[in-house]
Amino acid sequence: xxxxxxxxxxxxxxxxxxxxxxxxxxxxxxxxxxxxxxxxxxxxxxxxxxxxxxxxxxxxxxxxxxxxxxxxxxxxxxxxxxxxxxxxxxxxxxxxxxxxxxxxxxxxxxxxxxxxxxxxxxxxxxxxxxxxxxxxxxxxxxxxxxxxxxxxxxxxxxxxxxxxxxxxxxxxxxxxxxxxxxxxxxxxxxxxxxxxxxxxxxxxxxxxxxxxxxxxxxxxxxxxxxxxxxxxxxxxxxxxxxxxxxxxxxxxxxxxxxxxxxxxxxxxxxxxxxxxxxxxxxxxxxxxxxxxxxxxxxxxxxxxxxxxxxxxxx
Length: 314
Known about the structure:
Number of helices: 14
Radius of gyration: 20 Å
């Protein structure tokens, strides 16, 4: 099953140039059964990455462009009255899919953003008192413009906490920019991508990732990291237990992609910045510093004692 991850990554990197770590984290998040928030300026390849991943899987993928006039029912679906049958029928919304690409999620109003909460947390939607299960696997890949852009509604903490990871694409290097111009200058390269796996295989991978072993020492290590975020002088509100579960699941997925059935401290350290940083609520003076959340997580990782195996006499 490790080959599934390698095939997806190789396929996506045909159109996403110079972002191997980002692609790896998005795939790991999918294997962990979580959702991804891609954040950066327009034109940095966020939507392209989400579409490339969706095309790599022979499942159902849907893209919605979030705008201020979008309603929650436009995402979840509605009951409409069928005149011929004289009864109400439920029409499924775009959320009934395997991969939902929510483009520019922070351009939607808070009411519409909240329409995704139940789907992301419980993988179901409730409409007019009836609950409908979503397909499996189900993953939301949301893109977001920086909050200082015009016409956006910042995501509340409860919404951000539903995302397993938050990833920043960053600007490419000069050589990577040249490669991007060569690759995408001839038309829509997404049409050339073919599926390399299917939704059933992804479900099997997710079940295997859940079986990856996590030693108690690793669990204590994660717990200490969470406590350190709550005690940091620059933080008003630290990471909750949900953040710890997210980090553990991401570490298990990273271990699986490395060909292991057990988690190492390095897996935790690799995923910590992406799984924990967006869950921090900083003091007002610290919020104005770009990337401050990541810096705090890195500081905590540097100070926290890493668990090691005891090779002493038995």
